[in-house]
Amino acid sequence: MEKVDIFKDIAERTGGDIYLGVVGAVRTGKSTFIKKFMELVVLPNINNEADRARAQDELPQSAAGKTIMTTEPKFVPNQAASIHVSDGLDVNIRLVDCVGYTVPGARGYEDENGPRMINTPWYEEPIPFHEAAEIGTRKVIQEHSTIGVVITTDGSIGEIPRHDYIESEERVIDELKEVGKPFIMVINSVRPYHPETEALRQELSQKYDIPVLAMSVESMREQDVLSVLREALYEFPVLEVNVNLPSWVMVLKEDHWLRESYQDSVKETVKDIKRLRDVDRVVGHFSEFDFIERAGLAGIEMGQGIAEIDLYAPDDLYDHILKEVVGVEIRGKDHLLELMQDFAHAKTEYDQVSDALKMVKQTGYGIAAPALSDMSLDEPEIIRQGSRFGVRLKAVAPSIHMIKVDVESEFAPIIGTEKQSEELVRYLMQDFEDDPLSIWNSDIFGRSLSSLVREGIQAKLSLMPENARYKLKETLERIINEGSGGLIAIIL
Hints:
The protein is of the alpha/beta class and 492 residues long. It folds into 3 domains: 2-233, Rossmann fold, CATH 3.40.50; 240-318, Ubiquitin-like (UB roll) (Roll); 406-492, no CATH class. Helices cover 41% and strands 22% of the residues. The chain has 15 helices and 21 strands. It has helices at 2-14, 30-42, 49-57, 129-144, 166-179, 195-208, 222-233, 247-250, 257-270, 276-283, 315-326, 333-363, 418-429, 449-461, 466-482, and strands at residues 17-24, 74-86, 89-97, 110-111, 114-115, 117-120, 123-128, 147-153, 183-188, 212-215, 240-244, 294-301, 306-312, 365-368, 376-377, 381-385, 388-392, 395-396, 400-403, 443-444, 447-448. The strands form 8 sheets. Strands 2-3-1-8-9-10 form a 6-stranded mixed beta sheet, sandwiched between helices. Strand 20 (443-444) and strand 21 form a beta hairpin. Its EC number is 3.6.1.-. Residues 417-492 form the Sporulation stage IV protein A C-terminal domain. One of its GO terms (biological process) is spore wall assembly. Residues 238-416 form the Stage IV sporulation protein A middle domain.
């Protein structure tokens, strides 16, 4: 099942074409890797017998020693093979055997006339061996591959020591990073589990910031091939990161400080995610924020490049925000339930007049229509019109009318000379430009300006006599119930 999943995910990321560009220095085991890869994964899954035989014939030659075997780039098989992985999953697969970068001690890249000239698919004329290695590596990865595999060695597979490979290895990695395709590195070793090999694997992984696997290419098994593909899959770019905030944070208003803090933390953290491999590392960074208790990886859709992360908030933070929103410290479940009942009643009352409040703010006049529960129905009454009879059904329902009235309040203290008045104006206006609301906190005669103005407004509102209020209500009732559109007001 794992094999099917790996091929399925890679096929999704590459559009069904799994093209491996195998690059590196000479005498590292590139041709052997391709041969074993084909024998373990590709050939057994080619259904057409003729295609399988042709692919078998196209396998590269490999041998021990210092002599270079691959002297020109080679596509294996020459035409991409369609392999059947499982029901509904067929992929096209092909490997490219590159000319390796030269290393000291290798034989075969020079002849008696100097640098060996070799043929390539990209030029009509033969080109020098070292040039074919550089150009071939770039072209193979950029134009003919969906995944790159760098083969290097610890020096245990042949007669060339490890230090002779380092320069070529670095050049290959630089070339691949410049191209930008996903790639991994394989250390070909006769002792892949030795502590020294493991130390080299970790060193190269940190040095190049790529996944590095140590294995004996000559003894490679199907599981090793799947490990290479799985690690390569983690090198594909992340296309989408979904971060799930705690559900109760999501119901806060968008401009609430906590919700903004969560959103800022997400922006700051996920910007470091470039590859699927980065997701695990970045998830741990969320715990650095005080308002995030922990973060967990909810899942990764490998084939689609989508990662999903869940964030969890501390329990005491919920209590703090609840107190902030409600305005009262919650003493327990009983207290919370009591408050919820009060708030539910207040919300029911508010819902009846909320539309009217919007209307009165916009137009100066708002009407709250009565609810069904407010209506009272009189007893049905039989009425007569000439020779015909009918039934009168009369209902009475209170409607709430809101009128916005702009109340003017004036405060004009007489304080003395013109200069003293100018000083008072300057005092009132000193912070007005930076904070217009600060003027209300200005101290005048031992009292704030806001309290003086509020007192004046309250005094005017209380001046409206009871009989005037009653007459205004009576007038509105007649206009609405009798449908009279005319109104003459005489204010005495």
